[in-house]
Design brief:
The complex is a heterotrimer, with one copy of chain A (172 residues) and two copies of chain B (308 residues).
Chain A: H1 11-39, H2 48-54, H3 71-91, H4 97-124, H5 143-171
Helix pairs in contact in A: 1-4, 1-5, 2-5, 3-4, 3-5
Chain B: E1 3-7, E2 11-13, E3 18-24, E4 37-41, E5 44-46, E6 50-53, E7 59-65, E8 72-81, E9 84-96, E10 103-110, E11 115-121, E12 131-140, E13 145-153, E14 161-165, E15 174-183, E16 186-189, E17 193-195, E18 207-210, E19 225-230, E20 240-248, E21 256-261, E22 264-270, E23 278-287, E24 301-304
Parallel strand pairs in B: 2-9
Antiparallel strand pairs in B: 1-3, 3-7, 4-5, 4-8, 6-7, 8-9, 10-11, 11-14, 12-13, 12-15, 15-16, 15-17, 18-19, 19-22, 20-21, 20-23, 23-24
The chains are: A mainly alpha (172), B mainly beta (308).
């Protein structure tokens, strides 16, 4: 049910979302810098194979593309993606003391953003009946896998947020 | 056991009466059974004890102190033994006031330590051990509906401030928050406030930096200054607006204001100034258009305009 | 799991060889089965990997790095995928030395904080996480026979000193004490020392005070000075002897020593001095006749002898 681009979304909600995306991207950049500086794992492209074997996937935002924008479906996908990244960040807990605090902050900010989206969908009466689950999470069997997982999740999250920022910018 | 005091209330309002009774047991047998039970408050004997012999042979004295004006005092039950006054039992009396209502509750979100810091005025001294607790509940639609409570924040002893950790907070959701005070004589609550933690971010001031104007430009424009600024790094994710104030370092000079300005710029030219004059510049920023607090004014930047 | 590195030893002596093997599992199925397994140390490719196909279809490469000269380095097992080098697994190699023998162990009993503080020299850097522990055993007859051990004292990270709390100590019994160092490549121990904690009390200096000589006495004795002293209060329970040193404030003056002196006196007269001269006085004390350490010299007391 395509609604007018931004008719149903209050401006303060959109401004808050844009701010939250910028905050999470800043947290994510700090995590990437720390993983690179501490473990010399600076290039996600050299960990793609490992990512496949660990089952680290990208969250889809197909309903948010400017060509086929469905605001309600886009909010659903945005929320589900954030829930997926919340789970991935939680699975990465215990990576190492150097990145622990950054990981916690990132996880809290992603959770905050997911709740903000969910409550807006509830206020609009378009929230799905049950809250989406995180689905199967990767299990990391070595310190290296957890660190490499951190690099991959941070990189996927940045591109996910880039797409989200573009659509929120368009809606605002 | 030789004797035991029991109190109506160990803690009363300052000036209220206190009633105590002291029962002297049989096993104080080496005592003169007729000797009077005496009361002392701190070191002063207190008249007015009513003594009676109980059916089981024990003796009981009851006394009412009409007004307890000490915030703390020791009440002793004594017996005369030979010519020395023997303390049989002693209790501590406390007097004070119910907790006053805490007021002036105010909070700030500190992005550096990622905590939500609230402080309040405790009100007049109640003279009794009083516990303050910062309570808060997550809520929605501007605090009309309340959801689950947040873990209580207990300040350090004697402090009237408390920091709620980031992990207990939802930065972009409404929060109902208040202070509760409690002591032996009652509890009281401050008025309840409602806000989004993120709307109470206190920004640190922006940083100003002089720009060396390219040599050929400067003499041509003696009424201009070049500089740049950047708002506080941890707040760069926030859309902000800033204000500049400047004044010549002359007697009775007043501040001129330039607003609104963007949160950062690599190159800014300020003209319409007096040539060959020293100027003081300061800036401050605020989260905008979303709600926020003005930062303090930045440290001054001293710049001189060129000769004509 | 796609691939896994296993190491002969994750921690070796600096310069020693390291052997590693990497097994690539079947489930890296979307891979070209013939692609070569490559090794990287930090970011440099390492030749010399020997590859073999195992009966269960998995592939294994083994490599020996002749000399590991990095104290810390990441060893990666990689595969070529398309034209990008993919990291399949990575381990951290560490190299260093067994722990050096700690030396110069010395201890003092601090009566102010009631702790027995020992410090030592850790010796050259072993480049590996190394734990130092201060170990001690209560004993008798000058440490010939050893009784039960005292709780180990673990210094704060990076510190070469540790304080054993009073409750673990028998101040007047012999104590065998030494430092143990331990890391992945071994352990080492400092020489063992034996003493009574109380014999190692470090006294704070005594306090000197000028005495105003009664007016009629002073002019009559221009070669004398009057003062008093008291040794450090917390050590008054100890029998002590003290020493006084004094010198006129003249060029090339040298210290004169007066010893032994009692640990305190209310009134002391020092004569045989130059009249009308400024003198500097200092004192120190030591537990005596029981063993002890000299305190530092006290701060100077400046006094002037009268005119002739």
């Amino acid at each position: 049910t395509p609604l007018g681009p931004a008719s149903s979304l209050p401006p303060s909600f959109l401004l808050q979302c844009l701010e939250q995306v910028r905050k999470i991207r800043a947290d994510g950049a700090v995590l990437q810098e720390r993983l690179c500086a501490t473990y010399k794992l600076c290039h996600p492209e050299e960990l793609v194979l490992l990512g496949h074997s660990l089952g680290i996937t990208q969250a889809p935002l197909s309903s948010c593309s400017s060509q086929a924008l469905e605001v309600v479906d886009c909010l659903h996908q945005l929320h589900s993606g954030l829930v997926l990244y919340q789970g991935l960040l939680q699975a990465l807990a215990g990576t190492s003391p150097e990145v622990a605090s950054t990981l916690d902050l990132l996880h809290l900010d992603v959770a905050d953003f997911a709740i903000n989206i969910w409550q807006q969908m509830e206020d609009m009466g378009v929230a799905p009946t049950g809250k989406p689950t995180q689905g199967p999470m990767p299990t990391f069997t070595s310190a290296f896998q957890r660190r490499a997982g951190g690099v991959l999740v941070a990189s996927n999250l940045q591109s996910f947020l880039e797409q989200a920022y573009r659509v929120l910018r368009y809606l605002a | 056991e030789c004797g035991r005091i029991s109190l109506s209330h160990p803690i009363v309002r300052l000036g209220d009466p206190v009633t105590a009774s002291c029962v002297i047991g049989q096993n104080c047998n080496h005592l003169d059974p007729e000797s009077e039970i005496l009361w002392k408050l701190e070191s002063e004997l207190q008249p007015g004890g009513k003594q009676q012999r109980l059916p089981d042979g024990t003796r009981k004295s009851t006394i009412t102190l009409p007004h307890l004006n000490h915030t703390q005092a020791h009440l002793s039950c004594c017996l005369l033994w030979g010519n020395s006054l023997q303390i049989i039992d002693q209790v501590e009396l406390q007097a004070g006031y119910p907790p006053p209502t805490p007021y002036n509750l105010s909070c700030l979100m500190n992005l550096t330590i990622n905590s939500f810091i609230c402080q309040w005025e405790p009100g007049p001294e109640p003279h009794l051990p009083t516990n303050f607790t910062l309570k808060s509940i997550k809520s929605r639609d501007n605090c009309q509906t309340q959801e689950e409570p947040i873990q209580e924040c207990v300040p350090e002893a004697g402090q009237s401030r408390c920091a709620i950790q980031r992990k207990h907070l939802l930065l972009y959701q409404s929060l109902v928050i208040w202070v509760q005070a409690e002591n032996a004589l009652g509890t009281s609550q401050s008025p309840k406030l409602c806000f989004h933690p993120m709307d109470l971010v206190k920004l640190e001031p922006p940083t100003l930096e002089a720009l060396d104007p390219s040599p050929e430009v400067a003499p041509a424009q003696p009424d201009c200054l070049w500089f740049r600024w950047e708002s506080w790094k941890p707040s760069l994710f926030m859309e902000q607006k800033c204000e500049l104030r400047y004044q010549p370092q002359l007697r009775e000079a007043s501040w001129a204001l330039v607003a609104p300005l963007p949160s950062c710029t690599l190159h800014h030219k300020l003209c319409g100034l007096l040539p060959a004059t020293a100027y003081t510049l300061q800036m401050r920023c605020i989260r905008w258009p979303l709600p926020g607090h003005w930062s303090d004014w930045s440290p001054s930047l001293e710049l001189n305009t060129a000769e004509r």
